[in-house]
Fold this sequence. Notes:
The complex is a heterodimer of chains A (about 425) and B (about 300).
Chain A: E1 3-6, E2 10-14, E3 17-20, E4 25-28, E5 30-34, E6 37-42, E7 51-54, E8 59-62, E9 64-69, H1 82-91, E10 94-99, H2 110-120, E11 126-129, H3 145-151, E12 156-157, H4 166-176, E13 183-184, H5 190-193, E14 198-199, H6 202-207, E15 211-212, H7 214-231, E16 235-237, H8 243-253, E17 260-263, H9 265-269, H10 291-303, E18 308-309, H11 318-321, H12 338-348, H13 354-361, H14 363-369, E19 384-394, E20 413-423, E21 426-429
Parallel strand pairs in A: 2-7, 3-8, 9-10, 10-11, 12-13, 13-16, 14-15, 16-17, 17-18
Antiparallel strand pairs in A: 1-21, 2-5, 3-4, 5-6, 8-19, 19-20, 20-21
Helix pairs in contact in A: 2-3, 4-7, 7-8, 8-10
Chain B: H1 15-32, E1 46-51, H2 57-68, E2 72-77, H3 86-98, E3 103-108, H4 113-118, E4 124-130, H5 136-150, E5 157-161, H6 168-179, E6 183-187, E7 203-204, H7 208-214, E8 217-220, H8 236-243, H9 247-252, E9 258-260, H10 273-276, H11 283-301
Parallel strand pairs in B: 1-2, 1-3, 3-4, 5-6, 5-8, 6-7, 8-9
Helix pairs in contact in B: 1-5, 1-11, 2-11, 5-6, 5-11
Amino acid sequence: MMDLQLLPKKLLLKGGTIYDPLKDTMEKKDLLIVNGKIASMKKGENYDDAKTIDCAGKIITHGFCDLHVHFREPGREDKETLATGSLAALAGGFTRVCVMPNTNPPLDTPESIRFILEKAKDVPVHIHPIGAITRQQGGTDITEMGLMRDEGAVAFSDDGLPVQDGSVMRRALEYGSMFDLPIINHAEDICIREDGVMNEGFMSTKLGLSGNPNLAESSMVYRDLALGEMTGGRLHVPHVSTTESAEHIKEMKKTNKKVTAEVAPHHLYFNDEVIASFNTNLKVAPPIRSEEDRTALVQAVIEGVFDCIATDHAPHTIEEKEASFDLASFGMIGLESCFGVVNKVLVHQNKLPLSRLIQMLTVNPRRIMGFKFDLFQEGVSAELTVIDPKSEWVFSKNDIYSRSKNSPYLEEKLQGRPVLTIAKNKIAFIV
Amino acid sequence: MLEQKHLLGLENYPAKDIQTIIDTAFNFREVLDRPIKKVPSLQGVTIVNLFFENSTRTRISFELAQKRLSADTVNFSASSSSLKKGESFKDTAQNIEAMKIDAVVMRHPSPGAPLHLTKFIDATIINAGDGAHEHPTQAILDMMSIQEKFGKIAGLKIAIVGDILHSRVALSNIHGLQSMGAEVTLCGPANLIPPYAESLGVTVNSNLDEVMEWADALNILRIQRERMGSALLPSVREYRSLFGITEERLARHKKEIVIMHPGPMNRGVEIDSQVADGDQAIILDQVLNGVASRMAILYLLCGGKSEETES
């Protein structure tokens, strides 16, 4: 069980390796935290009055940042709350998350943004709300982006629903360019997707499930990239699932430096053959694609097409997931399992340097969202994660702190895990 | 005995078990010709027919098969509106299980629903159609009818004609026929052929006359009238001209092609009355074989010990 405590006045993380993802330096040093702030990083430090934690064999780095989670508050507190989601984040090594606005009601006003920040004050991780692009996520009328920015919105998205109308997307990118905050569009052309519940391909044919073709995503990603270029707006492409989308992003990044993109752990880890189990925890939007797409996404990570990993942590109740596959809700939780999954598939199986992976979980998402990213400086509030990169573990229900349990990784062997997370003057001992 | 406890689909289903079912079904066919069409084989066995979707033929066929075997049966029909919550499906299943039953025959609009059911209850489960996924008992009765007509299945050329995309009959037939050694061609409008269908090991050809030239038998699928005049199909007369088994078209081909249809038929759309009622059609044999096949399946899965028919 995770143990969450107040940070001692003086804490020494001793014997570990400090990886600074900003400077890309890996050094054997001890890290001293005094009164919640980084006090020093030197070799061979000893303090009789400091609580000392042995970090031998561990890597100490910035706390992970996930710019794409669903904490369901307000409206579906039976699935998740800001408080329970925060525990899931800590267990996954995350100290900072951005919550998507597809709540009930949606976060589409400055008042609702303020509500989130007030509720988030006392939770143990930093939470930033993303505001809706359109009122009620209706896809037609844009929201008060300026006022929402003033209250603390860090980006805009109708996530869960695409902005289907190209002219609305164009106007939102134009309008949003005044605030220099990312516009994040859940790219799935609903006309092409139809009622698809899994990837369209040989597996959907074999299983008799309605298919969602790659083009539903990639055509809208292409449209959004072109609109981003046309308007000068800041486009961030979430949860890229197809070969074609990755190619479009790679191409556009050559000329448009504003474009950023994320990839989710499950699209790197699974291919659509797993749907043969009809396990509804594998039902997600966009869907898990073919093996060809999966390997193309891994390759795109290695080539640097994606800026960051984002979990798209999407809790659902047992009832919603115990339905048959075509009727079950879309989404899976992903915070607790994230590092073990991406470290296994990217670092162990595909030889991505661990340093690159850590950058995709720390400094890169912070840059996209405009957060402070130079965290290993004296005087900065401690926000860090200690990783055991060698740990081999089997993900189980006991590792889940989310209020929902809809993980497709149960009984899956994962590699590497965060063991300690420090944020907001608290320390979480994960194992 | 059969290798698997359930009959969920014919993908990877052992060919020898398909043959056992067909052989047993021929034995039961004799029972159906007797004046008293009833054997005590499943006396004391309780079977629930769980139909989450409308069905007339399949349900009557199963019910008759159960009655002929002297099983105790209960029918349950649920409206599809009550399916919206997964909870109700699980609760329904577990409630029925709690009443001590031996087998469930289930029709459900969701692909994978029978597999899903195996997670909630211990009874034997027979899939009577799950969405556009599988309909294994239909494929078995189709194969039995083919064997009856041709004396064999292996080496035959069977074409499945119509809306393949939305069909559970097609997929089960493809898996079953292939494991029994037949060749399969799919024929239908290009937008009603599922993606990567060729990867199933079949040939796809949208030219019906070429397909008829090749085939020994046509299994003609029902075309949903509500799909007419949509993005999928422009009109009945266009469908008839491209894919309808008309009397003229059949006459144009010199050889004898066996005509099959799983029903219910849209006469005048995918098949002409003259063809459906003609000498080349074995459609009513399929219906009779449906009862015999389902008797065989129930018998073998719910306690039958051999291919012998008790009397």
